[in-house]
Amino acid sequence: MRIEAVQGDITTQDVDVIVNAANSSLLGGGGVDGAIHRAAGPGLLDACRELRRTTYPDGLPVGSSVATPAFDLPARWVVHTVGPNWHAGERSGSMLLSCFVTALEVAVELGATSVAFPAVSAGAYGWDVDEVARIAVGAARAWETGADSSWEPDHPHPTGIVLARFVLFSPQALAAFEHQLAR
């Protein structure tokens, strides 16, 4: 699995799955969440409303992930994950780690081979971007090495994911992720 970090707009990524740093309502918001909802078009909001009506009437719990179609995005699916909110006292690294792990699990269930992640919880939710980068890159590396040791880089990864891309909006976030990737 190739793990990389780029600066850019997650809504333009040509991957199977883009991960949305959603709020528990799943009904859109600011930052990455709002950008994804705007770019995907009204179908995404309709799909999220249906999830709220059926599967998650109380909202998606922190650290959990769920998929919808991507509608007008270049990706095939959006995997929504709810990061912990530092400002609300949700300061457990394991809660943040769960966002990345459950998003990868859902992506594999979908049959995805490529996933683009934002810096979940590093924006409005107030987590330090260096800590988010450490946890996110650690999660991707653990996912990669948790597979069958006979895997060879020229063949599909046993879990199906061959690319994990962190798409960062700011130069500061990119630098934090590049630092972790260089370690």
Automatic annotation (TrEMBL):
InterPro entries: Macro_dom, Macro_dom-like. Residues 1-183 form the Macro domain. Pfam families: Macro (PF01661). PROSITE patterns: MACRO (PS51154). This is O-acetyl-ADP-ribose deacetylase. It comes from Cellulomonas edaphi.
